[in-house]
Automatic annotation (TrEMBL):
<feature type="compositionally biased region" description="Polar residues">
    <location>
        <begin position="218"/>
        <end position="228"/>
    </location>
</feature>
<feature type="domain" description="DnaD N-terminal">
    <location>
        <begin position="19"/>
        <end position="110"/>
    </location>
</feature>
<feature type="region of interest" description="Disordered">
    <location>
        <begin position="206"/>
        <end position="244"/>
    </location>
</feature>
<dbReference type="InterPro" id="IPR006343">
    <property type="entry name" value="DnaB/C_C"/>
</dbReference>
<dbReference type="InterPro" id="IPR036388">
    <property type="entry name" value="WH-like_DNA-bd_sf"/>
</dbReference>
<dbReference type="InterPro" id="IPR053843">
    <property type="entry name" value="DnaD_N"/>
</dbReference>
<dbReference type="InterPro" id="IPR034829">
    <property type="entry name" value="DnaD-like_sf"/>
</dbReference>
<protein>
    <submittedName>
        <fullName>DnaD domain protein</fullName>
    </submittedName>
</protein>
<comment type="similarity">
    <text>Belongs to the DnaB/DnaD family.</text>
</comment>
<dbReference type="Pfam" id="PF07261">
    <property type="entry name" value="DnaB_2"/>
</dbReference>
<dbReference type="Pfam" id="PF21984">
    <property type="entry name" value="DnaD_N"/>
</dbReference>
<dbReference type="InterPro" id="IPR053162">
    <property type="entry name" value="DnaD"/>
</dbReference>
<feature type="domain" description="DnaB/C C-terminal">
    <location>
        <begin position="138"/>
        <end position="210"/>
    </location>
</feature>
């Protein structure tokens, strides 16, 4: 009985590492090997515990491999643009390195049908163009926002493609409108896209026409009617006005 209680206590103290099933399902499509996936999982375990730069030797001991092999897998992840190593100042102002796997989530979100998990023959044929267009959307949003997108934001954008079926060109136009209004928010972009859907605007041409008409209407000043003054009686100067 005491052993079970001790084991339960150990489980609670060890904590948990949450892995999204999309990663486990699609990691091969990200060009990750099994070894790279295991290294990612080990580093995520440490990152989730607040360790920004886990020790490679400790990871190697857990995996039963060498430190050199761990560094090799990390280097592969860097070359595949699935990992970043950033330097940030701590509370004392000293620069410290940290691992950032945001690029992995970004590439995952850019995969066609990652949310639905459906891969039909038609989708496979059009995948290269679709993937390129999706990546372009993610990249341009990051550039305009001036920062990396969070995993939640990446999932939101992926839903625009996979659940709402918004076209990439419509998302980019909505992004442009948001930037023009200095609204750097996915929620703002989402409202724009939904408003176009409610108006049954499904193509870039329809949207641009709608925007052009709206801007023309806003630029045209409203017609003002000339106010009528009091009625003034007319009479000849040579004749005095009639006496009442």
């Amino acid at each position: 009985m005491h052993e079970l209680e001790n084991f339960a206590s150990a489980l609670l103290q060890a904590g948990e590492t949450t892995i999204n099933n999309l990663i486990l399902t699609h990691y091969r499509e990200l060009n990750m090997t099994n070894e790279e996936l295991i290294v990612f999982l080990q580093y995520k375990r440490s990152l989730d515990r607040g360790i920004d730069f886990p020790d490679a030797e400790a990871v190697a001991n857990v995996m039963g491999t060498t430190t050199a092999d761990v560094y090799t897998q990390l280097d592969n992840l860097l070359k595949k643009d699935l990992l970043l190593i950033e330097s940030k100042a701590d509370e004392t102002g000293k620069l410290r390195d940290r691992y950032d796997f945001s690029p992995l989530y970004q590439k995952l979100a850019a995969l066609p049908d990652t949310l639905s998990g459906v891969h039909t023959t038609t989708a496979a044929v059009s995948a290269p163009d679709s993937k390129s267009a999706r990546e372009d959307v993610f990249n341009k949003i990051e550039v305009e926002f001036g920062r990396p997108l969070s995993p939640t934001e990446l999932q939101t954008i992926a839903r625009w493609f996979d659940e709402d079926h918004f076209k990439p060109e419509l998302i980019l136009i909505a992004l442009r409108e948001a930037v023009l209004n200095q609204a750097y928010s996915l929620r703002y972009i989402d409202r724009i896209l939904l408003s176009w859907r409610q108006k049954n605007l499904t193509s870039a041409g329809q949207v641009e026409k709608e925007l052009s008409q709206r801007r023309t209407k806003q630029a045209t000043p409203p017609t003002q009617s000339t106010p009528k003054g009091p009625s003034i009686p007319l009479f000849k100067v040579s004749e005095p006005p009639a006496q009442s």
